[in-house]
Amino acid sequence: MPFGRDQPTGLTGPVKAANVNVRMIPGRQSTQDFAWILTQMETAAKSSGADVALAVAREDDDFHPGALVACGYRVDRVSRSWRLELGDRSAELRLARSNARDAMAQIGIEIRSLDDTAHESIWRELYGLAAETLPDIPSTFSEAIPPFEDWLARMHEPGVFVDRIWTAWRDDSLVAYTYLVYPAVGDVSTAYTATRKQFRGLGIARAVKLESIGQAIELGKHSITTNNDLENAAILHINSTLGYQSLPGLVTYVKSLAS
Ligand SMILES: CC(C)(COP(=O)(O)OP(=O)(O)OC[C@H]1O[C@@H](n2cnc3c(N)ncnc32)[C@H](O)[C@@H]1OP(=O)(O)O)[C@@H](O)C(=O)NCCC(=O)NCCS
Prior knowledge:
This protein is of the alpha+beta class. It folds into 2 domains: 3-80 and 251-256, no CATH class; 81-247, Gcn5-related N-acetyltransferase (GNAT) (Aminopeptidase, 3-Layer(aba) Sandwich). It has 7 helices and 11 strands. It has helices at residues 31-47, 64-70, 90-106, 120-133, 148-154, 204-218, 233-242; strands spanning 3-6, 17-19, 52-58, 74-85, 109-113, 142-143, 165-170, 173-181, 188-195, 223-229, 245-256. It has an 11-stranded mixed beta sheet, with helices on both faces. It is globular, with a radius of gyration of 20 Å. Coenzyme A is lined by residues 133, 136-137, 176, 192-195, 200-206, 228, 232-235, 237-238, 241.
């Protein structure tokens, strides 16, 4: 039940938000059991200092959304889930990658993946860009920026491969990066994509995404999934133009733990 998100507006002072997700097995769903477990989690969250509880459900789920509303939750945010099928479109996507490489070269942007010898200074650059851009993701309760060591540990978790982190550089400055997570089982998914503010709108995010997509094709993957807040117009537009097909989205519910 991690928490550590702050909401800078609307309430006096930062709001601590706790994630309290309960999943009932299909066919054995009980609103009473759901409510009981959730109450235990809310109590624990509150005693740990949380002000609000957040829970997530798929918009096409026929149990959890109603069960959350019955427990006093309201919709906070809606995001779109997407899948990009690679098989049929691999030639088209590789051509788009090649065109994007040329376009980037013309504006002085070099794209490359990291390698196993990545020095700490490179990780520090990546961390700096993550810290600068995470607050730009539309959200009600913005993610707290993790300390460098915690962030670095996440970048070395299973499923994250250094040579699958794609970066864009102008001279010696990092301007964008993206990476996919390759779990041992299940879908390859986008973990994060970011472009430094003064370099946005130049096609750099699309170009680095195309590199990671091309690499996934070459690694024999069949599809990539991703999930984006409905207010994140730029990334929704990029995904749509890359041919991602939308799936039922994720709805985040919120409940105040005050009183
Ligand atoms: C999302 C983000 C990575 C985009 O980076 P970028 O380098 O500017 O993206 P690109 O230039 O490749 O493409 C942006 C596209 O979105 C379009 N766009 C930008 N703002 C838009 C808006 N408000 N509505 C619709 N389209 C928009 C641009 O016109 C461009 O499309 P085009 O090339 O077809 O004209 C960048 O805004 C960012 O770092 N945001 C913060 C982190 C984040 O939200 N990451 C995504 C979630 S993981």
